[in-house]
Amino acid sequence: MPAKAFLWQLYIATYTALLGLPFLLFPKSVIPYMGFDPSMVDEGPFVRLTGMFLLCLTLITFRIWQKKIEEMVLGTVVLRLFIIAVLLAMGIMEGFPFLLIMAGVAGTGVAGTLWTLRNTDLKQYL
Predict the structure, then answer these.
(1) In total, how many domains does the chain have?
(2) Structural domain contains residue 69
(3) Who is most buried in 2, 7, 10, 19, counting CB within 10 A?
(4) Considering the domain boundaries, does residue 12 fall inside one?
(5) CA 33 to CA 19: how far, in whole Å?
């Protein structure tokens, strides 16, 4: 597997950490910038839980990069495609542009990963 495919794992780890930390530690100050109502933080733990899950994804993708676990790279592509589909659907149906921007950020990572894997026989990783 090309070494550049693993660099895209750092891209994922970076943007998930940059989103996860504020969601977990100070959600009321970042939620308005994303077009959401800050009162949703008071209504339940969901924003902070989202931050926790993003930080978990950060750790997983960082370890994939660190340990060069080839079998996991393709799995992250499949997972990110699902996340992109959900972000697009919610962004379009609910009218939140931030979700569409995040779909673009995740899509950039998918495109970069797939581009680096274009000459690789992916069947061996399925």
Answers:
(1) 1
(2) yes
(3) 19
(4) yes
(5) 12
* 109 touches 94 (CB < 8 A): no
- Taking the model in full, what pTM does it have? 0.85
Which DSSP letter does residue 96 get?
Answer: -
The answer to whether position 125 is within a domain reads no
Q: What is the pLDDT along the chain (126 residues), one digit of tens a residue?
A: 788 889 999 999 999 999 999 999 999 999 999 888 888 888 889 999 999 999 999 999 999 999 998 889 999 999 999 999 999 999 999 999 999 999 999 999 999 999 999 988 888 877
How far is 36 from 24, CA to CA, in rounded Å?
16
Question: Is 36 inside any structural domain?
Answer: yes
